[in-house]
Amino acid sequence: MKLDKIFRTAVEYKASDVYITTGSKPVIRIHGDLVEVSEHEPLSEVLAEEYIYETMNDLQKETFKKNLDLDYAIELSGVARMRVNVFVQRKGIAAVFRIIPSKITTMDELGLPAQLKKLPELRNGIVLITGPTGSGKSTTLSSIVHHINTSRRSHIITIEDPIEFVHENKMSIIDQREINSHTRSFTNALRACLREDPDVLLIGEMRDLETISLALTAAETGHLVLATLHTSGAAKAIDRVIDAFPPDQQNQIRTQFSESLRAVVWQNLLKRRDGKGRVGAHEILFNNHAVANLIRKSKTFQVQSVLETGIQEGMQTMERSLKDLLSQGLISEETASEYMPAHFEI
Fold first, then answer.
1. What is the DSSP string of 166-225?
2. May I ask the CATH class of domain 107-339?
3. For strand 224-229 and strand 125-130, is the pairing parallel, antiparallel, or unpaired?
4. In 3D, which of 196, 164, 163 has the Cα closest to residue 179?
5. 245, β-bridge pairs
6. pLDDT in tens, 58-114
């Protein structure tokens, strides 16, 4: 594979992404910073196509030419898996390769807050992991699934686009399904899985009304649902779920969601002060009577006050998390300020 050397270099330097784009030199993201592969020439359209097309099979090439963008995964034997998005931009073809470590990282190895150990112990309801692209949502979900897999007997079904972390059966049975390869859509897979006797469902992304609706139904009917959302903040995640529904259904959904929600985790990955990688900052909301009441009464703007007073229940605000990382010397004041919610100050 023509990209083999670049991929191996990226993995060696613990990079998160590789960018191949017409008109630019290849670029690697290391600890959040973009670094050019300086010895490489800028990619012509022909060379960029050669590099990227070599990572696709014939069906993927046909689909890409028809749709002009495509998600899939590749595996560099013995090195890493990669989640790939290929698209067309002004100068020609481009692709972003997200590096997925071959070894699944545990919750302890990730340095996740201790109170998140409650999540794999849940037996039903819905858990939302939120944050921007590149904030480690998939890695956190994978560590939760790994904890369940190694600690209890469950049937776990994952629905992903594409499959990222590959799980082998330990104590649990894990069936991993990929959109387009193993099922036509998230909604088709979700409808089918309710007849497949799962204990745990992992939904790669809740993208639309039907997926969100089916996820809530699954959570309400005794399954543990783990899912991601591209939102910032626990309250915004709650609003995002409810606002996906038509206005005439939202009162009913508020009641349903208030009963099935178990936790919302909002996370960001921040550059460490010593330059040795990145560290996670987490806002953590656990559902309780006060939170459920605010959801039912459409007063999610008051969730922030519950986060601030719910320390004994394991809750924490993003502000608290950033200040703790700052006091431990793990991040700089500049980094803390960059990620601090707008209504707070360092």
1. ----SSSEEEEEEBTTTBS-HHHHHHHHTTS--SEEEES---SHHHHHHHHHHHHTT-EE
2. alpha beta
3. parallel
4. 163
5. none
6. 999 999 999 999 999 999 887 789 999 999 999 999 999 999 988 899 999 999 999
For 4-101, CATH gives: 3.30.450.90
Q: What is the pLDDT of residues 101-156, one digit of tens each?
A: 888 999 999 999 999 999 999 999 999 999 998 899 999 999 999 999 999 999 99
| pLDDT score of 344 more than 90 | no
Measure Cα distances from 152 to 53, 146, 169 in Å: 42, 10, 11
Give the predicted TM-score (pTM) of the model: 0.92
85: alpha, beta or left? (left if phi > 0; alpha if psi -120 to 50): beta
Work out the number of other CB atoms within 10 angstroms of the CB of residue 246.
8
Q: In whole angstroms, what separates CA 239 from the centre of its chain?
A: 19
The length of the chain, given as a count of residues = 346
Parts of the chain belonging to CATH 3.30.450.90:
4-101
> What residues contact 297, with CB distance under 8 A and at least 6 apart?
254
Q: How far apart are CA 122 and CA 224, in angstroms?
A: 7
Q: Are 143 and 107 in contact (CB under 8 A)?
A: yes
